[in-house]
Design a protein that fits this description.
- The protein is α/β, with parallel strands linked by helices and about 425 residues long.
- About 30% of the residues lie in helices and about 20% in strands.
- The strands form 4 sheets. A 7-stranded mixed β-sheet has the order 3-2-1-4-5-12-13, with helices on both faces.
- Helix 1 packs parallel to helix 10 and helix 4 crosses helix 5.
- The longest helix has 22 residues.
Amino acid sequence: MENQLTGNVLVAQSGGPTAVINASLAGVITEALNHECIEEIYGGLNGIEGILNEQLIDLAAESQQTVRGLRYTPAAALGTCRYKITGEQDYSRFVEVCKAHNIRYFFYIGGNDSQDTAAKIAEHAKTLDYEMRVIGIPKTIDNDLTMTDHCPGYGSVVKNLATMIRELALDHEAMGNHDLVSIVEVMGRNAGWIAAGTSIARRRNHFEDAPHIILLPEVAFSPEYFLAQVQECLKKNKFCLVVTSEGITDTNGNYVAAGNSQDSFGHSQLGGVGEYLQDLVSKNIAGVKARSCKLGHSQRAAAHCSSLADNNEAFMCGQEAVRAAVAGESGKMVALVRGDTEKYSCETALVDLSSVANGVKHFPENWIGEDKISVNYQFNKYILPLIQGEVQVPFENGLPAYVYLAKVKVEQKLPPRNLQ
């Protein structure tokens, strides 16, 4: 084969885990085993940071049962990181590790920042004249990656959250007496895809069924308008259930609730908007019981309530990444392309990593209701296919029987990393 490159595979995971990120890993492993030009399949522990420390494991040594089990196991089986690779020293060290282990194919499963990292690694390997093919595999519950119709992980988090919203609504219907305000804080830093997705929990019209109010980062938050809408909702319903993105902002573009700390990529640590809204309601609406809950990491880890369609597409992305690299592609990310037929279909395409890196795909303005606290019905056609089907998780003694990698270590060949 003209484009054939013989050597080893290295795959790693980065950023916040999802319910289906391991399905993409399983796709990489499964497909890599089909190609004679791929000799060994290695996993990098804890993303780029682990690779820089030459912490590799032998994925070909894992049992087929374990690899199949990755399809229904949540979180990042290889471990993850939020390490920002910087400077000549880091890039050179990465390539040194790849050379030492004859890595010719590198696959990075991650979101916005991870695709930026993959793009820079691909370019740096070129400058050092080291032939290595780099393909990004999309992952983010936020669904905010550009150049792809949707992201693996999104359908599952929405399916899980919408299920919980329906269950909470039944609970609140039993307890409320036009005096209960319940606020659910969900993830979503700069884009409201997750919060918007909970709208599918409704079986009736807006304000007749929960969630009654949806707050998105794309809409500037007004305390006065919010309080008025809560009061209007309580006139018609025994309770008012609010879903808010963690990243909602005021009219000046400042986060309503942000801590003082930042991660290595300069992102503010968010959280606390639910408590802020609870306090706002309690202080301004008499006779109302206000509650808030922050679902946190549990919303992205619920493989027991994940989407089979999402899982299958995540696996497909892993497979397609390997096929593309073997065929000679590099510096690309696998994107999902929705078919234009009435019945839902989805295929893959390749897009330049540089076009994806650090971009943000916001929730479309034309899908936001005129009242700015609801989502238009047109959104249903987009989201409903992504939550279809249930992943069959095996249970043992009444609990999910998730798998763990054996993590057979690959012998280190380089001196320890110089951190100075």
